[in-house]
């Protein structure tokens, strides 16, 4: 099936509803947070029922192409499943809408960092570029953590073509469904010790964050900070998240 085909799901927000929620966000402030800290919060992007619908997909076979047990690869403890094409409707819509709102900033970053080529305005055109380069596997994923599970610091790169910002949406309620399990971001600059950012998330909140680098302005012109993200140890319960990566994998 085509990457642009989507699977409908029960309790899925409409594309118009998601677009309205995203349009209502303070995008200048979000862009500033990404520029200054490498991450930005979008509170309440999905409601409880929408989160529950997505989390319930985890135990079904049809939407997924693979299952990864983190401990088998030294990634941490816990597991995740990559969606197959066609993507569920919410995931496909979220991917397209986030790309449209982030592509201008992505091109500014690419210009400052001297990387290229420029990202096309349309997400379908960017995915076509990925596929022409052999990056044909979809990268959105559902992650499930239980007691004592965690995710080591990492970067979701997958190939030559990397969109510089991605999103994670928490699908469970901290303090009710689980404890611990904080989203963690680290940043490394040349000749400096690492900086750590812990982003508190409520159910339905999304965090946008830099995949690999964000540009810095220094005395010698543009420089870059290197970022990695992960999840601290879940102390109890179960934690589900949706990862929305905007490039495909080889």
List keywords for this structure.
alpha+beta; Jelly Rolls; six-stranded antiparallel β-sheet; 6 helices; 17 strands; 27% helix
What is the 3D shape?
Answer: globular
* SSE order: EHHEHEHEEEHHEEEEEEEEEEE
Counted up, domains total 1
Question: What characterizes the major β-sheet?
Answer: 7 strands, antiparallel
CATH class membership: Mainly Beta
The chain-level structural class is: alpha+beta
| CATH homologous superfamily annotation | q2cbj1_9rhob like domain
In short:
The protein is an alpha+beta fold. It has helices at 15-23, 27-37, 48-56, 70-73, 89-113, 123-132, and strands at residues 6-7, 39-42, 64-69, 76-77, 79-83, 87-88, 141-145, 150-154, 165-170, 178-180, 183-188, 195-199, 206-210, 213-218, 221-231, 234-237, 239-244. It has one domain: Jelly Rolls (Sandwich).
Can you describe this structure?
This protein has a seven-stranded antiparallel beta sheet with strand order 2-13-9-17-7-5-3. Strands 4, 8, 11, 12, 14 and 15 form a six-stranded antiparallel beta sheet that branches. A two-stranded parallel ribbon has the order 1-6. The chain has helices at 15-23, 27-37, 48-56, 70-73, 89-113, 123-132, and strands at 6-7, 39-42, 64-69, 76-77, 79-83, 87-88, 141-145, 150-154, 165-170, 178-180, 183-188, 195-199, 206-210, 213-218, 221-231, 234-237, 239-244. It has one domain (15-244): Jelly Rolls. The longest helix is centred in the middle third of the chain and has 25 residues, at 89-113. Helices cover 27% and strands 33% of the residues. The chain is an alpha+beta fold and 250 residues long. The chain contains six helices and 17 strands.
